[in-house]
Amino acid sequence: MELGGTKAIVLRAEGNAIAEQVTIPTTSPTETLDAAANLLRRWHAQAPFDALGIASFGPLRLDHAAADFGRMLPTPKPGWSGADIFGALAGAIDCPAAIDTDVDGAALAEARWGVGADDPALADGLCYLTIGTGVGGGFLSRDRPLHGAMHPEVGHIVTRRAPGDPFPGICPFHGDCIEGLVSGPALAARFGMPGDRIAPDDPRWDHVAHDIAQLVGTILLTTSARCVLIGGGVGMGRAALLDRVRTKVVAQLAGYLPHVDEASIGRIVRAPALGERAGPLGAVALALEALDAAGPLPSA
């Protein structure tokens, strides 16, 4: 299951081939998770699952030793703080299960079947950014998602603002952190209408490109990522915005990183190879991770 801030996608797959998927609106935790759990039970009764992968928006508690493992931590999404994501879904069926952030799942999928399959050198040191209802980042190091005290929360990094940009941001925690500046709801507040109704050549995109480039530059400087994929509803489908971001990343870094220049930036900052399939396939990748961790299946 891929649980997003606007919609949830429940799917079943064989390998990385999706056999069936159902979209559920993300409303309240009870309504959304109950609908998903009921669907999982019905499918599991028809053909038992080998494993379950849950790729969710965050922030999440991912420490298995914590009493609130698998629960949502304080989030701007109304009503979702404390929601027991893992318990509601993994508790519905009996099989190995794994939970991680949606961006970590998408990074794993891209490493397995996307940019990592096309260019294996990019799979280690891969960053997957999603810019949509919120802003999140998943990082792979030695083919594993990066976890520590929790998982990276790049959406709430505060970066240098563009000169002359008066937009105050909308994050209830930090105001003008990156999520407060460039997420879908932030763009609607900034423009007075949804971003998909703004012409690609509108000069107001310049401040948005500046802010995204600030985030990308911060990631390149702090994590030495080999590749930054920009997905999500805001990130995908806007080639002109991605081009602006690339140009500004090179300008903002000012030659400090010798491997980042006009010739290389197209390989380093790019759209996901899997496109919109990266999120759902991220849940599949997590299910395969759970299956690998559980060991060989018993023989029939």
From TrEMBL:
Q: Which reaction does it catalyse?
A: D-fructose + ATP = D-fructose 6-phosphate + ADP + H(+)
**Which keywords, in A-to-Z order, does the entry hold?**
Magnesium, Metal-binding, Zinc
Molecular function GO labels: fructokinase activity; metal ion binding
A Pfam family annotated for this UniProt entry: ROK
Cofactor names from the entry are: Mg(2+)
The EC number(s) attached to this protein equal 2.7.1.4
The record, for InterPro entries, names: ATPase_NBD, Carb_Metab_Reg_Kinase/Isom, ROK, ROK_cs
PANTHER family under this entry?
FRUCTOKINASE (PTHR42742:SF3), TRANSCRIPTIONAL REPRESSOR MPRA (PTHR42742)
The protein's name is fructokinase
